[in-house]
Amino acid sequence: MAVYTDVAPDELARLLADYDLGPPEQFEPIAEGIENSNFLLVTGRGRFILTLYEKRVRSGDLPFFLGLLDHLAARGLACAQPVRTRAGLKWVMFKDRPAAILTCLEGASLRHPDAGHCAEAGAALARLHALGADFPLRRANTLSLAGWHALARPLLDRADAVEPGLGTLIRTRLAALDAAWPHNLASGVIHADLFPDNVLFVGSRISGLIDFYFACNDAFAYDLAVMLNAWCFAPDGAFDRARGRALLAAYGAGRPLTDAEIASLPVLAQGAALRFLLTRLADWLDHDAAGSVRQKDPREFARHLRFHADVRSAAEYGA
Asked: Which residue, 126, 142, 274, 316, shows the most beta carbons closer than 10 Å to its own?
């Protein structure tokens, strides 16, 4: 979450006039994340999140994103839900950009998850994949292999200013992924961004999943590879095999992996590392100084990418 666009009190009042939420009792920006402008909104009806969609979220994708939240919640998955206007709309145009108000879930995200937390998250991902099976809408993953090439082109000549050799690393890994990327793996609706800051816990149990704005249709095992990158590296940058084992075992208990999926994990994990390296690099190099945003260091995922490039078997992840 982040803030690129400020909202004045009179502007908020005009927006809330379309909702049956009552007047605001508390309204404050949330300066986390890098994609959209987010605000905590408290009224007599409860706690909510106002999101103004910026940058990579297109209004044409909102029926997929917000419809998916309703679909999953109706099937028992704890996730934020869009609040409808009095006219029944899930989102509106506000300050020249799409905006939505969503329910605010209880719980807090974790900075340093342990193996038990990884197991909970892996089980939740398997459940998400199962519950999304009959969601009728489809959305291609615009941040998969073809999208990485397009994203990389304007960055390559500037990448070495962030870290020497980074441009060569990106070129080399893109070529390797072109040659090795798996096809015809089991696929369906995936979250595609299930980092620890998008999973809320109360105690040791998950209380909800948030931030579905990269959700799409793609390989289930790719979603798991994203989580290997996001959940299973220690603060010193080393891969924590105990966390990887817990994540993979819990996911597999809910949705058993095929031999092809297991064999593909090292390549998929490289792809996931490259995806977040590139988006972080783009945000780092083209930082919007006007936004109240905490930039995320792309070099973290450069280290992950180098690690995965040397992995020869999913057993090194704890499989």
From this structure: 274
- Tally the C-alpha atoms within 13 A of residue 11's C-alpha that lie toward its C-beta: 12
pLDDT tens digits along 96-127:
999 999 999 999 999 999 999 999 999 999 99
pLDDT tens figures, 191-233: 999 999 999 999 999 999 999 999 999 999 999 999 999 999 9
61 C-beta neighbours (distance < 10 Å), count? 19
The first and second tokens of residue 78, run together, are 């704890």
Segment 284-306 mean pLDDT: 82
**Residue 39 token pair:** 């605000």
Q: Is the dihedral of CA 225, 229, 230, 231 positive or negative?
A: positive
DSSP-derived 3-state class of residue 174: helix
Kind and range of the H or E run holding 280: helix 259-285
pTM here? 0.93
- Outline where 214-258 has alpha helix (H): 220-231, 241-254
